[in-house]
């Protein structure tokens, strides 16, 4: 307990979301649900994840690059199961991309239901305010999910939308995060550097902050509630059902639905952003929601833009443990025993490839403070998605060597930057906004 408290103190002091790194605090109900999934799979026990705190532990996390591989060859996004090549864009869209979507749904993220209940958005409150000297209108919105099929389960998406006063059809930067600010930042001085919200408003754009936990709780015991529980009418998940990351991404799509109806926002110019677990969800949202124009994926790590096959930083086994398994579909747990990451039919580069040809900015912090997320593993995945971008007539990352810190690589439609800070998107916002402007402000391109 005292370890937990001192970690919380460090998190407050640094103003960043600290990776929990193997400190899973799960309830008996979560443990029971995790066990239930393993029983369905006929699995006795999983291999343990790596320990990010205790260097002396037998399963201590590896940060030594020379031990990060060798790993088996990455699956080729442009080779069909029968060994034939994907030769043109038409084949990608008609054959290969659907195959990859099916593999991710079946083996990694779980399946989003074919039909989900309707969401009705309404404005809860509206206020005038100023942000960085600019007059803005702040709207708090609730997306009420139709629960006629399970009236005891109430799901209400919570989103803040802030638009410059007088805005008409402006781009929206949609963050998965905390509409009222991160809880660990309350009463703390703001982190150094510009506030991303001021930067967005100064461009004449809008920003929105959607609370993922209003879509689906961030734990296993909540799986019989939230949108996942509602669709299942309160029953526990089956092996095929969607995990929480997929549900959070579904919520992003519902936010885009709202932007389509609001004359102040342009639903064709929405960028999605998230950090860490919300970075993973932002990447899924980009992969599954074609209406999203640009993605800013920060410190997403394992289950996000990091290659599962890398033996550095967090490992697949951590995701499969009771503290994080709820993010994933049930069948994913098999890869933490009896199978391994090398047996996965897909890897993170193919999740990035599902975004192609749309622009994507992969953001990481410095290699010490943000080591758990394996920056290099994410860089390698971004490089390996390049052939799909090229096939679709877009530009790849344009680099294959891991760049020095604070070097922006953004000559193509994939971008990468390692900022000097920790587990945050913060210092990369100015570069991301420049990158996004290339696509969202065509007049300035
Ligand atoms: C944990 C987890 C990561 C996750 C992070 C976060 O550290 O292991 O996968 O990204 O929490 O969301 O802060």
CATH topology (level 3) name of the domain at 109-116 and 168-440: Rossmann fold
Give the names of the bound compounds. alpha-D-glucopyranuronic acid
Name the strands of the widest sheet in spatial order: 1-2-3-5-4-6-7-8-9
Q: What's the number of helices?
A: 12
Give me the CATH superfamily of the domain at 109-116 and 168-440: Alpha/Beta hydrolase fold, catalytic domain
Task: Summarize the structure in words.
Helix 4 links the parallel strand 4 and strand 5. The longest helix is centred in the N-terminal third of the chain and has 21 residues. Helices cover 29% and strands 16% of the residues. With 445 residues, the chain is an alpha/beta fold. The protein has a domain of 281 residues: 3-Layer(aba) Sandwich (Rossmann fold). Helix 6 crosses helix 7. The N and C termini lie far apart (53 Å). Bound molecules: alpha-D-glucopyranuronic acid. The site of alpha-D-glucopyranuronic acid has 11 residues, from loops.
